[in-house]
Task: inverse folding
């Protein structure tokens, strides 16, 4: 838990506060501090992780690292955009700010719900246990990977919150690519372990977006 909190604190400070040292007026607005708070919250509801993970198992195919850095880099780009290229308009409170905040709350809620529903089956690296089950309760009734969907909504929402449109588009593209790659490798292992039970789940429930994909 201590390592998890330290990692989250350092990452949140580096991404959301450090870029503002070149424009300290941005630190007087609540938005950056709200993002730090959400960054800490999301870390508390997931296993401890390492941004540079040399000990990751080969079966993970680097997907965990790809996800982490797709988030870190796009969040950093978005904050730099907001603080140095769109300031002070990026920190006004308007419809986009409210929509971004709602997306953050919904995304964090969905991801946390998924993590709690999976329990010990939620892991940082791709892992399939001998007694693995097809979970269909909670948010898994609506999409097969609600934790990924929640993170995607959350971290795109943070950049909408800052009116960082370039960062938001980049986040959507890079995160989606990372999650699609992760899903392909993860589901190949699930099919190998669970067979027809998981194939039936794939046929019946979409991966990330209900009724779409």
Result:
């Amino acid at each position: 838990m201590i390592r998890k909190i330290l990692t989250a604190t350092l990452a949140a400070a580096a991404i959301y506060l450090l870029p503002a040292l070149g424009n300290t007026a941005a630190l007087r607005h609540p938005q950056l501090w709200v993002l730090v708070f959400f960054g800490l919250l999301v870390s508390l509801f997931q296993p401890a992780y390492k941004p540079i993970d040399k000990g990751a198992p080969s079966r993970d195919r680097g997907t965990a690292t790809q996800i982490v850095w797709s988030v870190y880099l796009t969040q950093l780009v978005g904050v730099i955009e907001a603080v140095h290229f769109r300031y002070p308009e990026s920190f006004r409170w308007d419809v986009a700010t409210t929509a971004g905040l709602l997306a953050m709350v919904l995304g964090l809620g969905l991801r946390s719900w998924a993590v709690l529903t999976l329990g010990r089956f939620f892991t940082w690296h791709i892992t399939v246990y001998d007694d693995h089950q097809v979970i269909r309760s909670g948010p898994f009734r609506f999409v097969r990977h609600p934790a990924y969907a929640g993170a995607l909504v959350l971290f795109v929402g943070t950049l909408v919150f800052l009116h960082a449109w370039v960062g938001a588009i980049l986040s959507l593209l890079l995160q989606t690519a990372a999650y699609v790659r992760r899903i392909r490798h993860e589901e190949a292992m699930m099919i190998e372990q669970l067979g027809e039970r998981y194939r039936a789940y794939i046929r019946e429930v979409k991966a990330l977006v209900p009724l779409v994909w």
